[in-house]
Write a structure and sequence with these properties.
mainly alpha; Multidrug-efflux Transporter Regulator, Chain: A, Domain 2; three-stranded antiparallel β-sheet
Length: 147
């Protein structure tokens, strides 16, 4: 098994020394030391660091990541971590789909306002006028009034 000093692991991951030490303090990464007290890491630690980076890029908090990683103490096979990670991936996916729906509604609203403003007879000072009665969005328009 290859051993890496903290500087080497920093170069391999692009993480700062401070970040690597911080992850160790949080228990995300085991801190193995030589007799002289110098930290060293193995290939498995490199995988953990890359997993942490990946999860952070997907919006996981360090607390969520710690919960997953600390399951290693309960289950050496990795099945609990895998199941928990799948659960959290699905939860994040569901949240992102909901955000995407909200963003699509916002985009639709902006497009509608652009069309409405482009159709206004005297620019910004009035509603589009004759277009309102036939507009498919008149129920949500704050300018439309039944005559």
């Amino acid at each position: 098994m290859k051993r890496y000093r903290i500087g080497e692991i920093s170069r391999l991951t692009g993480l700062t020394l401070r970040t690597i030490r911080y992850y160790g303090e949080l228990g995300l990464l085991p801190e193995t030391r030589t007799n002289g007290g110098q930290r060293y890491y193995c290939d498995e630690d490199l995988v953990y660091l890359k997993r942490i980076m990946e999860l952070k890029s997907l919006g996981f908090s360090l607390e969520e990541i710690a919960g997953i990683i600390k399951l290693r103490d309960e289950d050496k096979s990795g099945n609990k971590r895998r199941a928990e990670l799948l659960r959290q991936y699905r939860s994040k996916l569901s949240q992102d789909i909901e955000r995407m729906k909200g963003l699509q509604e916002h985009i639709d609203e902006l497009n509608w306002h652009i069309k409405q403003l482009e159709g206004a007879e005297d620019g910004f000072k009035s509603c589009p006028g004759s277009l309102c009665a036939s507009c498919e969005h008149k129920t949500r328009c704050i300018f439309f009034k039944e005559m």
